[in-house]
């Protein structure tokens, strides 16, 4: 059950000592969800437990994936991290959803914090934190919310003769990071389609989108870029690490992941430039359309200017105005007014002003 996002996010108190374990960010789930997947080349089992204290020992020949959804319960998160004796500073970064993405290498585990993208019910892209701890035979993932981002991993685990169950946990961690990257690239595709639709509506003289739509898309791209940009450095570090947890057999996959990270960064940079050009096109088109309207109004004013002069001239009601008492005065003036109006209208239309 999702909790409304208008709850005030928790904040770390100013002056609090390092390694103060407090959840920073909005609470997205009512209850913490812990899913345990034990896998081997011949068997995969999955179960959900309410507390990490109910976790059974890892059987020989199996590897374990602990999937945690929800970060608000800092005591339970701390208990989960104690399985690998994770440094309190790492737990602090894990609980802080506003922390900068990073990678930290220790003797017994590697900690990776990155960002993943989700699509809200109102169609707005939200950026959430995704953290990962890779250890020997154990992988732990942490998400702010229960998201379907890891469904491809579960699907691969259930497939016969898959690589995930035969390789070390570093390969499993690489697969998780690859899924996060693919998910980000999919959202980049969606934003590209949205930008193209906005650009078409502007350039093809269709109804202009609202300005808040243009600015809202630019803000989403900026948030996406801030989340993607550090991932390039994270994957670069993993490609050149000397940690014993990263085996030579997994190195090519991390290099491939690095290539995907470069692609994601370049595409978000292109999106930023594209969004800026669309905003400029929007303002240019709006100004052009306003100029067209003003040009038509000015032409109409010029047409009626001599007509107004003539109507005002013969509406002054002086006694000594021979035309007022002339039999053909009114029809003659009417013909003159119509002729002047039509002549000016034809002249403006010929010049392309109407």
Q: What distinguishing features does this structure have?
A:
354 residues; alpha+beta; Beta Polymerase, domain 2; Methane Monooxygenase Hydroxylase, Chain G, domain 1; 2 domains; 7-stranded mixed sheet
Description:
The protein is α+β, with helices and mostly antiparallel strands. The chain has two domains: 33-285, CorA soluble domain-like (Beta Polymerase, domain 2), CATH 3.30.460.20; 289-350, Up-down Bundle (Methane Monooxygenase Hydroxylase, Chain G, domain 1). It is 49% helix and 15% strand. It is built from seven helices and seven strands; from the N terminus they run βββααββββααααα. It has helices at 74-81, 88-95, 151-158, 169-203, 211-239, 251-313, 329-350, and strands spanning 33-39, 44-49, 63-69, 102-105, 109-119, 125-135, 138-143. Strands 2-1-3-7-6-5-4 form a seven-stranded mixed sheet, with helices on both faces. Strand 1 and strand 2 form a beta hairpin. Helix 4 runs parallel beside helix 6, helix 5 packs antiparallel against helix 6 (251-313) and helix 6 (251-313) packs antiparallel against helix 7. The longest helix has 63 residues, at 251-313. 26% of the residues are buried.
Report a brief summary of the structure.
The protein is of the alpha+beta class. 49% of the residues lie in helices and 15% in strands.
Layout of secondary structure:
Blueprint: E1 33-39, E2 44-49, E3 63-69, H1 74-81, H2 88-95, E4 102-105, E5 109-119, E6 125-135, E7 138-143, H3 151-158, H4 169-203, H5 211-239, H6 251-313, H7 329-350
Parallel strand pairs: 3-7
Antiparallel strand pairs: 1-2, 1-3, 4-5, 5-6, 6-7
